[in-house]
């Protein structure tokens, strides 16, 4: 049986791991933009001009999902406990 303390701890670690992954992805896209864009451009048959908005959209959506599904429930559980 899962209790509130275990669930709070779980969501806290999920938040840390997901924000770490977001940070890692952002740094890799920033440092190796040409390399990554070359690979994705060939895989998706997209021109490089369309990849930057796609990367930005990916990072923004991932951040929103982390906040909605990890951070907000974590904060709510912290407030009620």
Architecture overview:
- The chain starts with a helix and ends with a helix.
- It has one domain.
- The mean pLDDT is 95.
- 90% of the residues lie in helices and 0% in strands.
- The protein is built from 3 helices and no strands.
- The protein is mainly alpha-helical.
Shape: elongated
Order of helices and strands: HHH
Counting DSSP H or I runs of 4 or more residues, the number of helices is 3
User: Which ranges are low-confidence, i.e. pLDDT below 50, for 5 or more consecutive residues?
Assistant: none
Question: What is the structural class?
Answer: mainly alpha
End-to-end span in angstroms? 18 Å
Question: Rg, please?
Answer: 17 Å
The whole-number mean of residue pLDDT values reads 95
How many DSSP E strands?
A: 0
Major beta sheet, specifics?
Answer: none
The figure for the number of domains is 1
Strand content: under 5%
The helix content is over 70%
Give the topology, please:
Layout: H1 4-31, H2 33-44, H3 48-80
Overview features:
elongated, 0% strand, 81 residues, 90% helix
Q: Nutshell version of this structure?
A:
This protein has helices at 4-31, 33-44, 48-80. The protein is mainly alpha-helical and 81 residues long.
């Amino acid at each position: 049986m899962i209790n509130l303390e275990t669930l709070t701890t779980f969501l806290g670690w999920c938040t840390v791991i997901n924000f770490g992954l977001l940070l890692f992805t952002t740094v890799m896209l920033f440092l190796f933009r040409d390399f990554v864009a070359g690979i994705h451009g060939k895989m998706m048959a997209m021109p490089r001009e369309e990849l930057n908005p796609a990367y930005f959209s990916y990072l923004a959506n991932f951040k929103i999902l982390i906040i909605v599904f990890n951070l907000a429930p974590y904060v709510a559980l912290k407030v009620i406990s």
